[in-house]
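Example complex used in Figure S2.
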Amino acid sequence: MTNEEIQGIFFQECDEGLASAEAGLMACRAGEHDGETINTVFRAVHSIKGGAGAFGFAALQSFTHHFETVLDLLRGGELALEADLMTTLLRAFDVLSDHVAAIRGAGSAPDDAEVLAMLQAIGSGERPRPAVQAPPEPLAVAEAAPGVDLSFDLDALLGGLEAGDLDLGEPAALPATSPWRVTLRPARGALHNGGEPLLLLRELVALGGEMQSADTSQIPTLDRFEAEGAYLGWTLTVPGHVNRAAIEEVFEFVAEDCELRIEQDGVEPEEPPAPANALPVDPPPSSQPEAATNVVPIKSAVPEPVKPVQAPVAAATAGQTIRVDLDKLDRLVNLVGELVITQAMLAQQLQDCGQSAIQQLTDLDHLTRELQDSAMSIRAQPVKSVFSRVPRIVRELEAQTGKRVRLELEGEATELDKTVIERIGEPLTHLIRNSVDHGIESPADRIAAGKDPEGMVRLAAEHRSGRIIITVEDDGKGIDRERVLALAVERGIVAQDARLTDEEIDNLIFAPGFSTAKAVSNISGRGVGMDVVRQNVQALGGRIAIASTPGKGSVFTLALPLTLAILDGMIVSVGDQTYVIPLTHIIESLRPSHGEVKRMGPGQHVLDVRGAYLPVLSVADQLGLSGAADDPTQAVLIVVETEEFGQAVLMVDAIVDQRQVVIKSLETNYKPVPGCAGATILGDGRVALILDVETLVALQITADEPPLLRRA
Amino acid sequence: MSKTILAVDDSPSMRMLLRAALTERGYAVAEAEDGVAALEWLDSNAPHLVITDINMPRMDGFGLIEELRTRPRFRDMPILVLTTESSDEKKARARQAGATGWIVKPFDPEKLASAIRRVSH
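Predicted assembly (833 residues):
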């Protein structure tokens, strides 16, 4: 695994860390936190700091260090979680998100000076300085001079790491040619906790050291001998060119548990007499008695043999994801699509030759379908990546508008095609902004209306019958229908004397060029209206609808396709053409009896479907085809459902097949065709157009009236 | 047979870094994501050495070491603590819990190797 790949994992961890930190901070803000909540936030920030250090992201490391310091005080109970601190923590979190985005290459490093200063002020204000800390902490440097170049802070930190915690008090030493004399006497308990003086001696030997003598004077008589006691002492010489710090590092783990002297030995004739530069490192006074109490009864002294075991490489904890280049994935999906088509063609040709009953072909069909499902599922991603951006947007809106908003997220694990995920972010952001800006009232207004001063915005995703339904709901004031209608009339969107239902008025906000904001606010009024949101959603093959209750709030509902690459379709023939109708729209298909079809006028019919009269649309008429059946009783009628116009009936000549088809874009390969959502290649190699049911129905129903004024 | 080291850290990338540095030096590496997972693995395995992070969910590094030191099987097993702090306070705490030594994060692979040499045959 390369360093880049590990770094990729670190980036994923950052995302996970940010998500759990955010969830924790949100819980804190809502007052629903306990010690573990703060701990979780602390750990997330701490982990990011660790990785930032390992991968050399200095700015991120420095920022997380200060952030972590404050969180540490908080979890230690040294700080109280007051409103001001909460605000600072949330701001710090946002800056942290920006830092993480920056190291991932999305944007430059954020300007964190202000938040950093706040964190430092909080961190230093109440932090007790532990008396034992001899070397100044890097934090102290930053405290002394706020605004000091942060890289200095890091250098101090790294410098601290280099030297460990050893107090290298001596000047850079003499031209050290005379050998070092190292005297070591481990404390009695040196063998506890897995300690092993022999290894330290070996390290000294590896540095060029030579054993001079062993001191056996402390070995007791057998009756007082403890199996786990350490009784020996040693004297070694180490060549003078070896750095003193290197020798001290060998004893880094035991320095406080043993008697250690590192002295420069003897005096070379040509050298001036060595001053007393030998610094005996005396054991702290406390270590002796402590060592004495560490004596372990002899009965438990025999350690069990530690048998070497091959690691059953516990990769289960990490190796669950791999990163794949998106192009590769798209190529795979495309190839599988072609495979589906080829398989269908093969089946068709064999059938034409009268060989339809071959079992293997059916198996191949199943396998191809499964392969396609798997390939598509690789592209699916949880909608969480989009949802996770929303809390910050809401926080920023709160700050800008002075409103108070509680955000509820639901169904974040719902999976959606990556392309849809990528393109749904902007419309969704706009809807959220719209809800907070136009929907939720100010706290004062809400109190006056007898509502909770804190408004609610709920963002939810769910899988419903082959589509993903995303709802943006608020408990604000709802749509001001009088004003919407007045504006629509003023702008010529509807006629002065038009009679509209409430639902129709609500839908006017999607009309092109419509904006309800009295003054263009800098929040949702960015020159992008709801009409653009609607266009964006439609471009994804999705639909948007609104339901609003005055004084109670509004619900925007987005229905999105699971994938943009394939669909289950019904293959139908109309005249000499073949079309595909997406199954998601189809409710039922039938051959009507005479009594079920009523003629309304020339070429206009309605179908009686169990008491409900639905308009019958001739696909041939809509697409300008000749030679198709024009009598509904001689045709096949397909009842379809649309988001905007409810149910309608499509009239076709015959149903040919029902299968999964690979969508080929008309826009990319030809040009947009009204009424057609795309094209596909059929089993016999012919191209068939995929009908855009929604547009087809809209074209018919609104043929001679302005849009949005008629609903079926 | 190569020696086995159990790397305990809640951060997959940190475990990866440990794995990369250790496998390069001929060690076999097992991983656990926190103290509880480590104890589970240790129930049926005996590594030569455990390297553990301190801050972890469920059971932190200190808790893991303290627990291991109560078990005869692991009383003498070398345990290194991974710490982001180089403060005496943290080291004293690690030693008190029963750690054999420590490694300061971010670690230099050479220093890691040297620390391992000083606590494990």
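Chain A touches chain B through 59 residues (CB under 8 Å). The longest helix of chain A spans residues 3-29.
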